[in-house]
Amino acid sequence: MTVETNDIKWVVACATGDIDEEDVMRFDHAGASYAVYRIDQGFFASDGWCTHERAHLADGFVVDGEIECPLHQGRFDILTGKPMSPPVCVHLKTYPVRVENGEVLLGVTSRDEA
């Protein structure tokens, strides 16, 4: 299901119960791949691919509000996408998320889907 508001399209990524606390899951939509997280502060989303090398972050580990890449163990802050440890040095793009009726919605724009 997709709901549009302004220039953001809200796409259902999963149900809230699909992600355990302190975990991540992969979500693919319109040719793009995302990582959807559940941490103490709530649900969050980012690009799915590490900015260092081509490893999907959904195969990584969530530790203290950070996602650790499965390939070289670089870490990103889940809330901001900021690189937290080498070898990652390029920010990870993050996306707005909201929860409605037990579903996690990811906010994308037409630029994100291009």
TrEMBL record:
Keywords carried by this UniProt record: 2Fe-2S, Dioxygenase, Iron, Iron-sulfur, Metal-binding, Oxidoreductase
Keyword Repeat (UniProt): no
Domain Rieske: 11-106
PROSITE patterns from the UniProt entry: RIESKE (PS51296)
InterPro entries documented for this protein: MocE_2FeS, Rieske_2Fe-2S, Rieske_2Fe-2S_sf
Any one GO molecular-function label of the UniProt entry: dioxygenase activity
Cofactor(s) required for function per UniProt: [2Fe-2S] cluster
Signal peptide residues on this chain, from the entry's feature table: none
Record keyword rRNA-binding present: no
Name of a matching Pfam family: Rieske
Family the UniProt entry places it in: Belongs to the bacterial ring-hydroxylating dioxygenase ferredoxin component family.
Entry protein name: 3-phenylpropionate/trans-cinnamate dioxygenase ferredoxin subunit
Species this protein is from: Paraburkholderia bryophila
